[in-house]
Amino acid sequence: MSDAVGIHIQSVSKRFEHRVKGEVYAVREVSLDVKPGELVTLLGPSGCGKTTTLRMIAGFEMPDAGRVLIGERDVTHVMANERNVGFVFQSYALFPHLTVFENIAYGLRVQRRAEAEITTRVGEVLTLVGLSGYDKQMPHQLSGGEQQRVALARAIVFRPRVLLFDEPLSNLDAKLRVAMREEIQRLQRALGITSVYVTHDQEEAMAISDRIAVMNQGEIAQLGSAEDLYHRPNSVFVAGFIGRASLIPARIAARRDGRTELDVLGRSHEISVTDIRFAPGDQVRLVLRPEAVTMASHGNGGIGGTVEARHFLGEKTEYRVRIGGHSIQIASQAESFKVGDAVTVLLPTDRLHLLPGES
Amino acid sequence: MALRRGGIGRDPTLLSTLVVLWALLALFVVYPLVVLLIRAFVDDGAVSFAPLASVIGDANHRKAFYNSLLLATLVGTFGTLLGFLFAFTATRAGLPKTWLSVFDAITLLPLISPPFTTSIAIIFSFGPRGLITHELLGMTGTSAYGLGPTLLSETLTYFPIAYLTLKPILASIDPNVEDMAYSLGASRKRVFFTITLPLAIPGIANAFLLLFAASLADFATPLILAGNSFPVLPTQAYLQITGLFDFKGGAVLSVLLLVPAVIVYLLQRFWVSRRHYVTVTGKVGPQSGYKGTTGPARLALVGACVLVAIFVLYFYALLLYASVVKAFGANHAFTLAHYHVIFTEGWRAIRDTMIIAAFGMPLGGLFGVVVGYLIARRNFIGRDALEIATMINYALPGTIVGIAYLIAFNDPPLALTGGALIIVACYIFRYSPTGIRATVAQLQQIDPSIEEASHSLGAKTGETFRRVTLPLVLPAFFAGLGVVFIRSMTAISATIFLVSISWTLITVRILENMTELSLGPAAAFSVFVVLAVFVVTGLVSAALRRFRAPGTAPVSVFGT
Fold first, then answer.
1. Which of A11, A273, B287, B288 has its Cα between 20 and 30 A from that of A296?
2. Cis peptide before A96 (omega within 30 of 0)
3. Nearest-angstrom CA–CA distance, A170 and A200
4. What is the per-residue pLDDT for A243?
5. Contact B455/A154, CB-based, under 8 Å?
6. What top-level class would CATH report for the domain A7-240?
7. Residue B552 distance to chain A (closest CA, Å)
């Protein structure tokens, strides 16, 4: 859609008074540009500042420093009711005393729209979220998923320039969560509304987002596509938060022709990755994704290890294997290894990411 | 992440509302109390404790002080025991729903009755020609006056407060916790003494203090039943003023009453009320029923409750009977003469009471909702002070408030005594805390994000309040309004000082009837009040159900 606008967050900070720690930053010097029509997720553990950032975009909280722009307009000190922002709450925050129709019509009534227009537009948006015929229901008569759809309909019916989601799916059960997130994605793409989405669920974030901003302790740790974050995390925190990873210390032995020779647990291992940040002799850490590591019976080359734990999960079997004083996780198709078995671990040669070693 | 929006500076509506509220509270709460203290302690512009010393020096007054404390302690003890018995039976004996509704209705009766109801019934039952003492047991020369009858009357009147306090506490104990104790091998008795009772201790302490305060403040019961041999402070202060026209003495006596009242209030509010155990731990799984009682124990519990309930019902039946016979104890011929009397001679009292209630109800309801909203949702300087100021007249015994109003508003430029306004004001500022707390409770159940949702959809603060907040606190408004009505019909301790030739009240008429020994009209008035309160609370409850925000807990008119 051509009239979509971007969101620009510029060095925004928000402090609050902590009972024990005194003044602490909920959000510290966060900058983020959301492109028109894009869906960016703020992802992080609880208390990382993601919700506070979202609420500052909505105008529920005012930043202590920095600016918030929606399109070209500086809205830093504009009240929430003048920002034209749709917000979907974690609790849905449906008006309990109003019918589904009146909940959705609320924003239009505030704008003093004509009755005929309200009826048409509410009807359209009810169809859009698959709730035609629910007009006269009261919120408490609806299931969680239906309430969620009403909340969504209410947020989009007045055609906001920006749509904000605060953990909208966390109150739904697992199956419904997957269905609803696909629905949200479909609607957001169809309407082309610039959106910011907050969640602590990395799978949800990876499934729904154009880009993800991983937040930690009030700051953005890394911003990128799901693939970027998974394959090229820039920190131990991101590596551990997006998917699972085992970290193994190593040393750069040599670099030549687009290949790097590593010294891993006293063995030489050549990978097809070159990271210009590192020079021969540098200490690094290997980021090993469970599915990238393979294992075989003892004596097939590779690094010798012992199976510490085994979890059969159906589509795969997860093992924890001890190699050279470190435990690593391996997701394998092989089901036959048992706890205590001596095995050989084969590290990947291409899908391998390096992080600086512990200083 | 509750968000408190807006300071005073940015919000002219908030500022003007606060100015009006504080002006009203200063006039009708702070000023009378200050005047009372000045009257008690200042002589000719100098602080003097001579009046206090002389009151304490009077043996009769000292006796009244001890008697008040003794009576309050006994009422607190027996009332709490009775309340616990009912609450435990209601929550643990596995009674069918209809039984519980009957229980609730019977325990509600004393709470909505005019002040002399049980007193009249006790005189009818245990007096010189009493139904039980004389007719049944053939005793002569018995007296229905003194500590015993007063204690019986007050216990039966106030034990429902303990029941209402303890029932939710016993019901909130997760049965799984008791099941856990059983699974660890504990017997029923052991579970009761090691799990149930300890978890209920804060509630029991709270109930005791509430009953203690209620008995301490009770004016009507001792006035009728205590007699000359058992003076208590509220009646002593009343007689000092109305009998001897000694305003200073009355002021000093009410200050004497103030001391234990304040201590009990502070204990209740700041110590006991913070000691509630929360037994909701983690996710509430499937729950079994309580298994607290065996067959015989259950029979004993239910039997005891039924006996008390029958006793209460007997009192009300007696009242009804006495209102339709010529002269109870002497001539038991059927007559409607007493009702004729109350609707002719007594009509003025009924009319005045209704007019005063009609003005007090909407104003009291509105006051409760506005103050409750400000306390729950707004952040401003002096919020705690506002909350405390609105609680003062509620927490003080009515006798103190009545005497304070009488002294403060007797002289120009604030000569309000004798008018209806002062009675309306007394009700509003004395009985609004129920509405305030109902509003706060209602708003606490409503996620602040609902108001934020309204903001994000473009509505300004005023529009949000009108479209979202106000409809959601409507139940609290009706609760506040209902309480003002009940109290208009039943309260006497404060307003006895404020009635005049031009404005009187039903409760005061009942007292006059009692002192003239025309017990028939007194009984008829009482029946009328009970019926009127039942009808109106029924209407209010219907309104509460109609306007109750779906998904929120119901609001009760009978906040304790």
1. A273
2. no
3. 9
4. 87
5. no
6. alpha beta
7. 9
> Percent of chain A, pLDDT > 70?
99
- Looking at residue B196, its amino acid is T
In this structure, what token pair is assigned to residue A239?
């590596």
CATH of domain A244-356: 2.40.50.140
- Which residue's structure tokens are 């020369």? B141
Question: Which letter does DSSP use for residue B243 in this model?
Answer: T
- On whether the CB atoms of residues A6 and A36 are closer than 8 A, the answer is yes
Interface probe for B, chosen from A95, A111, A150, A159 (most Cβ of B below 10 Å), is: A95
Q: Which of residues 514-553 of B touch A (CB under 8 A)?
A: 549-552
Q: What is the DSSP letter of A357?
A: P
Lowest mean pLDDT among A116-130, A216-230, A243-257, B273-287: B273-287
Of B1, B449, B471, the CB nearest to A97: B471
Q: How many CB atoms lie within 10 A of CB B552?
A: 18
B3, B453, B460 ranked by CB distance to A93: nearest: B453
Q: Does A84 touch chain B (CB under 8 A)?
A: yes
Q: Could you give the 3-state DSSP secondary structure of residue B182?
A: helix
For chains A and B, CB pairs below 8 A equal 80
Distance (Å) from the C-alpha of residue A81 to the closest C-alpha of chain B?
4
Domain ranges of chain A: 7-240, 244-356
Residue for token pair 């009769």: B60
**Residue B280's pLDDT is what?**
39
Report angle CA B328, B332, B338 to the nearest 5 degrees: 65
Say if B445 is an interface residue toward chain A (CB within 8 Å).
no
* CB < 8 Å & 24+ apart, contacts of B125-131: B125/B315, B125/B318, B127/B329, B129/B329, B129/B330, B130/B329, B131/B318, B131/B329
For every residue of B248-259, DSSP letters joined together read HHHHHHHHHHHH
Pick the residue of B283, B450, B454, B456 with the most A CBs within 10 A to test the interface with A by mutation. Answer: B456
B296 and chain A in contact, CB less than 8 A: no
**Burial (0-12, 13-18, 19+ Cβ within 10 Å), A339:** exposed
Q: Is the predicted pLDDT of residue B253 greater than 50, yes or no?
A: yes
Q: Which residues 461-480 of chain B have a CB within 8 Å of chain A?
A: 463, 467-468, 471-472
Chain B positions in Cβ-Cβ contact with residue A140 (cut-off 8 Å): 550-551
Instruction: Say how far apart CA B200 and CA B277 lie, in whole Å.
Output: 8
Angle of CA points B362, B468, B442, to nearest 5°: 65
pTM of the model: 0.74
* Residue A99 with chain B: CB contacts under 8 Å: none
Q: DSSP letter string over B456-504?
A: HTT--HHHHIIIIIHHHHHHHHHHHHHHHHHHHHH--TTGGGT--SS--
CA B407 to chain centre: 24
Contact A92, A104 (CB under 8 A): no
| Interface with A, mutate which of B1, B3, B457 (most A CBs under 10 A) | B457
